[in-house]
């Protein structure tokens, strides 16, 4: 149902403390996360191999985990190293451990074949902790399948309609046809809106002499990772030709991680590289994003209710759906490949 | 699952204001209702053909509707007349529109083939706005399949048991065998209870010299419409022979409209033609009806829970079930006819 | 899905008053219980044969029950003896009645073939009302299948991990291998822990000179009945050899009764035979048991959520699971026998 051999964002770094446990269900699998003594994040299946109890209700013993149902103890590789009532622990007694890489404040997890987990395949989101950029960590939870949120992010023509007072702008924004470029594992969307109004969230944090040229250029790649160069510059200052004079630039990083077939984790940050010594600007930008994403969640959740009323409903593709149709095909291609058991890295 | 080619009550007139939208799910289909500039009620599928978002979260633009997900615009026939990101709108881009007739404070909707929607087939409920009658508009929501409520309304022997302090009367009321007459699209039930106690709700609004002769004469027709001549007159004054001297007369109008397979809308009014210049009488009668219908809802919802525990449970028919067994057969006949694709008006 | 021909605990005696009705769903079947004039408990299917309404929303009429939907009246054998709208009641009009035996404050019910209901097969729990013993009645409700709770009770190695501050004791308790003896309809588990700490709940109600020898000896029999001789005596005073000098003895009685496939009734008492003139001791023991059983419920409910995430999850048997694996096999044997229609008493 979900792509296995790919990197998912499992958590923000700060969600996993030095002590204790952090539990989150990812692609339908309960996952226990914690930091070993050296700070490395460990990720194990949060379901004891014995009778299925959550290890996250258990106890840390150094870098090991004791299940507090019947006392089985697991090391951080997931191997059961102690079973109170017997001397020898059978070698097959273990829980799954997952490859994890912590990078730029995100904890990435590989739910599939660990042998295929190549850290070099993790998308670059360095803006999240680059000293030249500022952002705040965002997370919201959705009660819908992640693909409906992918759809949303792959078609920005919804901005003036869903987000008129936050990310939006004049409705003419929706008339722009973005260019959509096929990548191996997703799509690249490029949208330029020339000589347009400053959107509300940007007007609130920077003075502008008048109209702007605005861009949204992003890669949206499996499993559901958006990395975007966006921003605006005073009209006619050459932004489209590569000059960014007196611009407001952003590097939005967003990640959708399926929790179950009907729920999704959504991680996001929206780094900016201007006014980086003004925390109130960072907070204002973050707050606008949170408000906007709540607007998305309202319409997408209502959409989901409508779709649930009639499982036979067929969406009708319009021109603006080019990117999302391509992306859904790519997801299907990956799922097909995994179904066929091809031991092929999906990145 | 539900009869398509029939008139359902969709709303009370006052629920659909001059501005804005009113949304209600009917027979499993989300429906958007609003009034065009001339006051005519428009009913469209409340699910954008593009990606399924509810149009009711959108925006009025004159008599048109703008979906506030991606900005598609529909006219009041359901035709998409604008799609922001493209010049030409494909002709198949539309949502369903439903035939609607507003009559006597009820808004009737035809969920099936609009070509078959004959306004003359709408049951007469003129007492709801006849100046010689008075009533208040009632609505309650049920979490049960509508047929369980039809059953309830087709067998008034439940009155003394479910409604002892409202509609009821002595338990002998239940001993009366009503006559049940087969109509083309339902049944006519006639029940006379001679020389009986005044039921509590009527005793509260009118003085009575003693016992009464009481009648309940109603047509119950598909899809679930009850229209009733009921009342009582002092015993022996000839009501049964057609004289209604010093009587209290009512013309109950009730309509069951399936929301989903497990939930139902219930519209009702209980017009009376005495004391019409005393609003407190109208209010008292209405309040009694609301209390009584809440009593029905309690027992029917409990019944539904019991049925859900054992889907194989078979109800056992008794003599009192004559009307409801006939009505269920009529419903099946209509459903069969529609399944067989016979283009036959169901009225 | 559940064993039919066996005795289940349906209620504590005090739950069924002299007047009125008590309703509880048992093995998926709604059951109405009440006391006839002579105090005998009657148990009928709480679902009118007519249209399925709960009789428990009805009315007592002497030892009979009047359904307050349409007024059908049933005697305490479940036979319909009156139907308001007709003179003759058809002989097949009845609801199921269930064999019931009230014994030692528990009301036992037989959900299967009443002809097979042998009161002699009811497990002995006389300590619940023996004047030499004291206990308080306990009941909790679980939202899990009853077998997960059986599993819990069949492996006491969880005590130090789930109940460290109530029933527990040092973790070495979990290292003890109990002996497991096969009974015809269950298992007998015997666990001796020599020279061990007094568990917290016992330390709170009795003074101890030092370490103790502790025992838990119980029969766990279908459908889910635990009867336990447990306790502790000062170390080395010969408890293991049959001498119980200055001991604290208990006779725990526990019964699991499936409500539905995903919920369970849990009845329990924990009689003690020391300090029987000190109600505060009885209350303290009871309170410890309730706290401990809430601890069980927390971990088992979490386990259930984990299992629901992956129906294909296979539990892995360890040495400590000997008793529960045997018990599950016995349950399967009974279910198979009933599926094969063998008219065989399951006790």
UniProtKB/TrEMBL annotation, chains A, B, C:
Keyword Oxidoreductase recorded: yes
InterPro entries for this protein: Cholesterol_7-desaturase, Rieske_2Fe-2S, Rieske_2Fe-2S_sf, VanA_C_cat
Write down the Pfam families for this protein, in alphabetical order: Rieske, VanA_C
- Residue ranges occupied by any Rieske domain in the UniProt entry: 7-109
Q: Which PROSITE patterns match?
A: RIESKE (PS51296)
> What is the protein name for this chain?
Aromatic ring-hydroxylating dioxygenase subunit alpha
UniProt keyword list: 2Fe-2S, Dioxygenase, Iron, Iron-sulfur, Metal-binding, Oxidoreductase
**SUPFAM superfamilies, from UniProt?**
Bet v1-like, ISP domain
| One function term, GO molecular function aspect | dioxygenase activity
